[in-house]
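With this grant's support, we have paired protein sequences with backbone structure tokens. One protein thus recorded is set out beneath this paragraph:

_____
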Amino acid sequence: MNKILTGFLLLLSITLNAQNGVWTVEKANEWYKKQPWISGCNFQPSTAINQLEMFQKDTYDSTTIDRELGWAKDIGFNVMRVYLHHILWTSDKEGFKERLDDYLNISSKHGIKTILVFFDDCWNDVYTAGKQPAPKPGIHNSGWVRDPGTMIYTNPDTLKVLEAYVKDIMNTFKNDERILMWDLYNEPGNQKSVEKSFPLLKAAFAWARTVKTIQPITAGVWNNNDRFKALNEFQLKNSDIITYHNYSYIDNHAREIIELKKYNRPLICTEYMARRNGSLFGNIMPLLKKENVGAINWGFVAGKTNTIFAWDTPIPSGKEPELWFHDILRKDGTPFSETEIQTIKQVTGKN
């Protein structure tokens, strides 16, 4: 039997029903009532190109993290969504957990809670611990890495490592009020994976349900194409709190909120705000506040991730685009748009 088939059979042999332990609608809504209106962003310090550079010993930059989270507090943000990576754990288990704890201490000092993300199907498939590549001029997320990526298809032993990793991190922080939520899998099926990501998605929920956390778990829906129907149904059925991504104009976003409210669970938009697409602070953030939907935009301080450049529109010269795609502030803390800052402060109540 080849390694690929063996790996999938091992994944599919996980018999624990992921639905066991899903919060009731009542519990989910009671939890949400205790939270302030959730506002924040997907956070990567400007000095880190990816998840590895953010948390590895040689590049963990607590000074920048502290400064930038202070700016986030000043505009009324109270939640950051932060990506982890299993290589951080396999290469330096205890050091990684210490640095994660330090990050949580810094964020908590600023009154900011954290959504932690385990797996991710976006961007580069090849990664390694140690020194990370420099950004490629003008290319959006040129150094961002998937987790675990396609290696899981050819290295089935990776599954055992991933299980140990998820359970260890969750057990370590399962009663930690600095963590708002566990986001098990970012955009499963992206990079043309689609159904290939289903076994790991199911496994991640099964592993997470064995840990009795005080925090809810989720995995956000992000693609309404029919090919993702099974993935979406599973995510919606097994998430305690419903999360989703929407980078479209306000009409589309409003319709999605109506559809997702049919599940009667709290909603948090964990990715929005792409200026070129018309997904803006000025139109989307007030809509989310009005509908009592949490608002987590992509990007905060422009830096090594290059997310001021659009997904599919590189600028090889590296010249700053007139219209930033994502991000809010420059490295010195000045805003891309003062008008946007005033809008954010008005919606979050910081004005």
About this structure: The first helix runs from residue 3 to 12. The beta strands are 39-42, 79-83, 113-120, 179-186, 217-218, 242-245, 267-271, 294-298. DSSP finds 13 helices and eight strands in the chain. The chain has a mean pLDDT of 94.
